[in-house]
Amino acid sequence: MKDKILKKLKEIEEQKGVEILFACESGSRAWGFASPDSDYDIRFIYKHDLNYYLSLWEQTDVIEFMTEDDLDGSGWDLRKTVRLLAKSNAPLLEWLHSPVIYYQDDAFLEQMRLLAKDCFSPIACLYHYLGTTKNFMEVCTAEEVKLKSYFYALRTALAGKWIIERNSFPPVAFAELLPIAPLPIQEKILELQAIKANQDEKYLHPKEVLITEFLMETVRFNEEHAKGLGSRKKMAEELDGVFINWIK
User: Fold this and answer.
1) What pTM was estimated for this model as a whole?
2) Could you report the per-residue pLDDT of 10-44, keeping only the tens digit for each?
3) How far is residue 101's CA from residue 82's CA, in Å, rounded to a whole number?
4) Origin, by domain of life (predicted)?
5) Using one digit for the tens of pLDDT, what is the confidence trace for 153-173?
C-alpha cells in the first residue's frame, strides 16, 4: 500500500506543480485502532515555487483527493502550515508526530517538530480535544454504539488528560495514551479494540456503562483543569524566517 500511496503523491506533485515535504497517515490507522474497512487518511505538507507566494491574489492552499481504493488525501500549503503551527493547531501537531510516515524531508521534519514543541499551547490543544470528546458524548450514551465513536471519544479524552497531567503534547498512538487510564478501563478498552479489529465500521456494540461513565468523568476533569493551563509562546519573527528559508 505504501508504494501505491507514494505513486499517488508523485502524481499530485506533477499535476499541481508542488513539492511535497512530508506525508503521513492520520486517523485510526495512525492511532492504532483501525477496522478492516478503514480508509487510508493521508495527510501531507507541500510547497509551491516562489511565484505562488509573490502573487497579489489569494490562491487555494489545500489539495484534496479521494480514490476508489480508499485513499483519502488532504494536504496543506507550507504558508498555511506555518500559520497553523503558530496557533498550536492540534491536528497539525498530530501529523508531525504520526507513527506512520510515508515520506519526509529529514531537515524539514526535524525543524517542524522542534518548532511544534516551542509553539505548543496546552490550553489551545486541550480545548480542541475537549470539544471533540463532547461531540461524541451523545452517541456514546446510546444503547448501541459504533466502536469508532467510543475510540474517538476515548482518544481525545485521554489526550486532554495527558496535557493536564504532563503539560506536553500527547502521543499520537493510542497505545501510548492508554496507561494513564485506570486499569479496569484499560482492560475493557483492549477487549473492545480486539472486537473492532474484526468488525467493519458499521458494527453497533451494546453500551458499555464502564466506558460511558469514564468518559463523562474525564470530560469533567478536563473542564475543571483547563483554566490553569498555559498558552503558546509568541514566535512570529522566527516562523517568518523559517517560512522564507523554505520557499527560497
Assistant:
1) 0.93
2) 999 999 999 999 999 999 999 998 888 889 999 99
3) 19
4) Bacteria
5) 999 999 999 999 999 999 999
